[in-house]
């Protein structure tokens, strides 16, 4: 399989991009280089090799949830100058 200028035009149209003739020729070459490399990769014997998604083993970096007491509402609101019914009062930002 090889890429031609019509293929580049089609992909550019789908992406709502436009290229001049020189850029189209450059993309044809780049896309064909990529396809050539993929064909080269197909030659590698991967029989019996498990697929990997990461080079290093991954683990969940998140800690377990721990229930802790929260701050009292009065303490949270003590530094605000504008509060209403136990909540922060902020300016309207949506018309």
Notes on the protein architecture:
By secondary structure, the protein is mainly alpha-helical. 39% of the residues lie in helices and 4% in strands. It contains three helices and two strands; from the N terminus they run αααββ. The chain has helices at 5-14, 21-42, 73-77; strands at residues 83-84, 87-88. It has a two-stranded antiparallel sheet with strand order 1-2. β1 and β2 form a beta hairpin. α1 (5-14) packs across α2 (21-42). The radius of gyration is 29 Å and the shape is elongated.
Layout of helices and strands, plus pairs?
Blueprint: H1 5-14, H2 21-42, H3 73-77, E1 83-84, E2 87-88
Antiparallel strand pairs: 1-2
Helix pairs in contact: 1-2
H/E element string? Answer: HHHEE
Radius of gyration computed on alpha carbons:
29 Å
| SS-derived structural category | mainly alpha
- What would the principal axes of the Cα set say about the shape? elongated
Question: What can be said about the biggest beta sheet?
Answer: 2 strands, antiparallel
Q: What order do the strands of the largest sheet run in, or round the barrel if closed?
A: 1-2
Q: What number is the mean pLDDT?
A: 89
Task: Say how many strands there are.
Answer: 2
Number of helical elements: 3
Give the fraction of residues assigned to helices. 25-40%
Strand proportion: under 5%
Indicate the low-confidence ranges by residue numbers.
Answer: none
Distance between the termini: 55 Å
């Amino acid at each position: 399989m090889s890429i031609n200028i019509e293929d580049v035009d089609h992909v550019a149209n789908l992406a709502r991009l436009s290229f001049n003739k020189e850029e189209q020729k450059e993309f044809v070459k780049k896309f064909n280089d990529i396809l050539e490399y993929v064909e080269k990769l197909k030659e590698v014997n991967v029989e019996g090799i498990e697929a990997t998604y990461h080079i290093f083993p991954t683990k969940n970096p998140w800690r377990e949830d721990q229930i802790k007491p929260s701050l009292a509402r009065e303490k949270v609101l003590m530094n605000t100058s504008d509060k209403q019914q136990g909540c922060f009062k902020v300016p309207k930002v949506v018309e």
